[in-house]
Every structure is written in C-alpha cells, then in structure tokens.
Amino acid sequence: MSKLILETLSPIHIGSGEKYSSSEFFYNSNRIFRLDINKIYSILDQKDKDIFLDYLENPNFRLGDFLKGKDISISELKLYSLKYNGSALYEITEHIKTSFNGYVPGSSLKGAIRTAIFIAFMGDNEVKKIGEIFKIKDFKKRNDKVKYFIDKFLSSGGKNSSYSDLMRFVQISDFIPVKDLCVYNIQSLEAEGNKWKWYKRNGRVVQTYLETIMAGERLEGDINFTYNKQMHKSLGLKYKSDIIDIIEIKRLIHSFSNAIINHEIAFSERYEIDFLLEFYKKLKNINTEDSPVIKLGQGSGYLATTIGLELKKNPDVFEEVRKSLRGRSYSFEFPKTRRIVMEEKKPLGWCSII
Fold first, then answer.
1. What distance in Å separates the CA atoms of residue 25 and residue 66, rounded to the nearest whole number?
2. Is residue 116 a contact partner of residue 253, using CB atoms and an 8 Å limit?
3. How far apart are CA 154 and CA 142, in angstroms?
4. DSSP per residue, 40-76
5. Are 201 and 212 in contact (CB under 8 A)?
6. CA distance 197 to 273
7. CA–CA separation, 163 vs 78, rounded Å?
8. pTM value?
9. Which of 6, 131, 214, 245 is deepest in the core (most CB within 10 A)?
C-alpha cells in the first residue's frame, strides 16, 4: 500500500447530483450558511409555518429575508457553511460530501488512471475501432460505447472481461474530507472564429455556482495493488500486469496530462486567452513523472478530448469521423468551450499527485 497526496492546483468540483436554492441558505459576512429546512419549520408558530410554506413555492424566495427580525439561533439550524465572496445567487450545485465535509472519491482518480493507461497503449487497430464508435451521433451512446471498449481493452476480453478487468486489482481510497469548501462562479468561454467570448444564452452570460474544494488543499489517500502472478496468468492478464505499479502509473499520467496541457497551450495561443495560457504554461513546468498533474471532476472532459487527439494522428480515420459528424458538435476534436472559475481565472479540476 502506498500513500498518495492530491494537492489541488485549481478548484475541484465533483457533484453529488444535487442542487439547492436560496430557500435553503443565506449569505452573511463572506459565508453561505445552509440550513435545515425541516428544523426551521418545526420551530415556527402555525402562522409562520403557513407563510413559510407559501414562500417555499416561490422560486425567488430568499431564506435570509424570511429570517430577518426573527429570534432564531442559526447555529442550531446550520447544516454547514461555505466561503463565498460574491453577489446574490439563487442556486448552488452541491459537491459530494461525507458528514457535510467534501472529499475526492477514489473512483474519480481511478477513472482518470484507466483512461491514461488506455491512451498510452492505443495502437492502429484501437484507433480504427474507436473511429467507428465516434461516428455514432448520439453523444451518450458514443461515450458509453467508448467506455465499454476501454473496459474490454483493459481486461482479457470475452464474456469474463469485467471479472478480469485490470483495474480490479487497483484499490484507491477516498481522499480525506475537507471541512471548508468554497462557492465559486463558473462561466464558459467559447472560441468563435479567431476570438473568444463568454458563453451566452438568450443574450445573457450563463453562470453557475458550484461548491468546490479550493486550490491549495492537500488531501491524503491510499493506493493498493493486489497483484498475484498466478491469478493474472489464469485471467489472461500476464502481459498487462506490468502496468500495476505506482511508478509506471505516474509515468502514464504524466504523459497523458502533458498531451492535454500542450493542447490547451495551443488553444490559448490561437484564441489569445492570456490568463489560460499563463495557467497552462505554469502547469506544464510542474508536471513531472514523480509528481504528475491530473484533472478530476467537472470540467475534465478527458475521455473525448484525449481520444480525439489520438484519432487526429490517423488522418484517414479522423476524416471519416469528421465527415460523419459534420454539422454537429464534435467535442472530441477541439472543445470549443472551457469552464472557468471566475474569481481565480483558472480552469476547474487540476491537482498534482504527490
């Protein structure tokens, strides 16, 4: 078993799948307090209960306005609080938590490692097969097919491919809880022609607010390899088992992330996005084989982007795929948008593995 540390280089958001509105939180002194709505209701008198229920049906209802002037102890109602230094907001997307503390699931890192290994060992046959899959116009079906193909590639294949999956022998713990999360304003920049702009819908810049683990956090976890020579041989994994090594995995992640960083540097130069160019040049300098960087959580976009870069190395396959998706959004080639943490002018999700 080896100890790992994830050091966050930009804010990370790994969603719980839930959102909550201003009817559940209020803002005070650069902090957002999320309260227990059921507890609030239980301490109100009947008249205020009826008013409260009516207010909750209004999408623009703000809990802070309702609580003004009421003799209510916030400490007894608080679920948790978050850092925030911005203007009024109505909805927040929740980060995954345990006991109201944020963490990075081991499965997030494991998924990134899986893709890094696949990219490293893609040959011409894999490129051609992936090229066929990428002709599927339905985005979800395409991604599901690609993930299935990768799973099969990292196993002995056949009916028992899930049982013999190489990554079954890699266990990664969750990375320890972070007590103090921060809410950031996230906007998307998009490339158009030879310029860039902030993405708008119906004439308004689209903004989302995410709970995140802040840059500068250090989260501890473990990685364990259950390598067994006889078992791997019986499962048909004998010649793939050399990958099950922390030094080799770090080397593959370094190479994997380096391709993405170079792509982002070229993108930033092409569209003259100075703050993004500065970030990725610094990131390139700290990406080493001993301590590689990797992107996790929302905004990672790794699977489509990295495989798209590999497809482009085979012009014939790439051209076939491009033609099949003409007139549609093919984010696998050069994603036109980047999700940016506005307060820090950084892309989401980058961390280093120590």
1. 11
2. yes
3. 19
4. HHHHS-HHHHHHHHHHHT-TT--HHHHHTT----HHH
5. no
6. 10
7. 45
8. 0.85
9. 6
